[in-house]
Recover the amino acids of this structure.
């Protein structure tokens, strides 16, 4: 079976989806390196043969060049490198320098605009957390970037004299030991920072907007927060598909 291979190269993971006509997308996640890509090739082989590849990457041109080489070795087409553009796919970025707007943020906004009517607030909770607002006409209001939960944990261990690097686990609130206090503080710091920024972004968009949530730590925000979110775990890859295929339907829901 032929299909489209979508790649989302983040700071810590390489997520992928293989979309074949009339079939539910096959998805996976590997490490963003040569060994991980080799595993990806083996996994994709079980789904079909890519006749087109799209790459959304925050890892720079050198990594994109590596992906091109790995695709060539696998016998796959040269990847389409997703980049922000002005108004081409239903979103008009606010950035004067489009090259400085992350491809992941752009793809996520394109997907959110395609999937929801009206204004949207797009939240991606990964290594870094980004929040972007887009009005009902597709105009990007701007955005916010902040450290993700793991970066908070790293900062406390590397930027202080004796605090340990706490590992993720369920903890009580309020905490009664230092490690649990670090985990609780970083988790709730993420959750309520995202909520506060989302509420303020909704105000910027006129008081009503759909808050769309994605990213590896989205589960923490959903579990501990009070705001209502539309959860779309493959949002960036959905955006890559819409950019590649134009106005075609969403294979995750309606194709």
């Amino acid at each position: 079976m032929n299909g489209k291979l979508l790649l989302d190269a983040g700071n810590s993971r390489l997520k992928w989806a293989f979309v074949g006509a009339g079939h539910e997308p096959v998805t996976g996640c590997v490490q963003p390196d040569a060994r991980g890509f080799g595993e990806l090739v083996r996994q994709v082989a079980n789904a079909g043969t890519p006749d087109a590849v799209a790459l959304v990457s925050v890892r720079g041109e050198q990594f994109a060049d590596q992906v091109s080489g790995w695709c060539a070795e696998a016998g796959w087409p040269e990847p389409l490198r997703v980049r922000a553009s002005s108004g081409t796919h239903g979103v008009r970025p606010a950035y004067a320098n489009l090259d400085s707007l992350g491809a992941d943020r752009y793809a996520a906004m394109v997907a959110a605009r395609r999937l929801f009517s009206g204004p949207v607030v797009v939240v991606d909770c990964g290594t870094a957390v980004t929040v972007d607002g887009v009005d009902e006409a597709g105009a990007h209001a701007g955005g916010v970037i902040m450290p993700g939960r793991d970066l908070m944990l790293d900062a406390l261990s590397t930027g202080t004299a004796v605090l340990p690097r706490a590992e993720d686990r369920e903890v009580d609130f309020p905490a009664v030991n230092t490690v649990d206090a670090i985990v609780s503080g970083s988790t709730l710091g993420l959750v309520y920072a995202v909520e506060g920024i989302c509420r303020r972004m909704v105000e910027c968009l006129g008081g009503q907007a759909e808050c769309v949530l994605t990213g590896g730590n989205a589960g923490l925000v959903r579990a501990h927060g009070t705001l209502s979110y539309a959860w779309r775990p493959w949002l960036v890859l959905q955006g890559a598909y819409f950019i590649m295929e134009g106005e075609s339907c969403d294979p995750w829901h309606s194709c």
About this structure: The chain has seven helices and ten strands.
